[in-house]
Amino acid sequence: MPEIREKPYTSKYDGTKLTITIPGKRNWFQVLFLGFWLTVWAFGEITVCRIIAAGIFTLITGNIPAENITGILAISLFVLLWISGWTLGGTVAISNFLWQITGKEIIEVSKDILSIRYKIFSFGKPKEYPFQYIKNLRSIPVIERDFWGRRKNSWWWGKKTGAIAFDFGAKTIHFGSECNEAEGKMILNEIRNTYPQYKNS
User: If you write DSSP's letter for every residue of 54-69 in order, what string do you get?
Assistant: First the structure.
């Protein structure tokens, strides 16, 4: 008999709302690679920041010959642009790393509100959608993941896609980003069984 996979999420109904918690899926190759890369990134970040600080101090103290100032300013501009890109790349990598280690997608559903929150540690602001504006709540085919575990045509941990969607005005909202199609249907059924009004949304 084929193995039956248990649902990868937890759900709890407290009488006033249904809370569904989906942990981030870990790609251990990516976690190890990012851990190593971030070590190198931190070394480069600290080193370049120290160089910039030393250059600023030298400019302030006026210990540079006047004929060298133009060249030094050009080099400084290049370094500032480089460190900006390096910092941005590190921020994205840190977010991805922390999401896979501690990330959770938390869906809270009540008779009036559907809330979606992407949580890393205790951070992550929920987005709330009033029931009266939610239309066509449905499960959808899951977008294929690439080698790094990211959903294709989405950003680094797939938060713009998911196995469940609904229309909210002129926007389509996706959630269940770590679920496959069958899991998305299970979540959708739990929502509709708890709050039947979502069947006709």
Answer: HHHHHHHHT-S-GGGH
Closest to 159 (Cα-Cα) out of 7, 24, 12: 24
Span 137-161, pLDDT tens digits: 999 887 655 545 555 434 444 445 7
Give this prediction's pTM.
0.75
Q: What is the largest CA-CA distance in the chain?
A: 81
List of E strands, the chain: 10-13, 18-23, 104-109, 113-119, 127-130, 134-139, 164-168, 171-175
Tell which CATH classification among 2.30.30, 2.60.40, 3.40.50, 2.30.29 matches the domain 10-24+103-200.
2.30.29
CA 152, CA 158: separation in Å to the nearest integer? 8
- 53-92 pLDDT, tens per residue? 877 777 677 666 666 667 767 777 888 888 999 999 999 8
Domain ranges (residues) in the chain:
10-24+103-200, 30-101
Q: Which residues contact 70 (CB under 8 A, 6 or more apart)?
A: none
Helix, strand and coil percent figures for the chain, each rounded to 5: 45, 25, 30
User: What is the rounded CA–CA span in Å between residue 106 and residue 9?
Assistant: 10
Joined tokens for residue 156: 């680094």
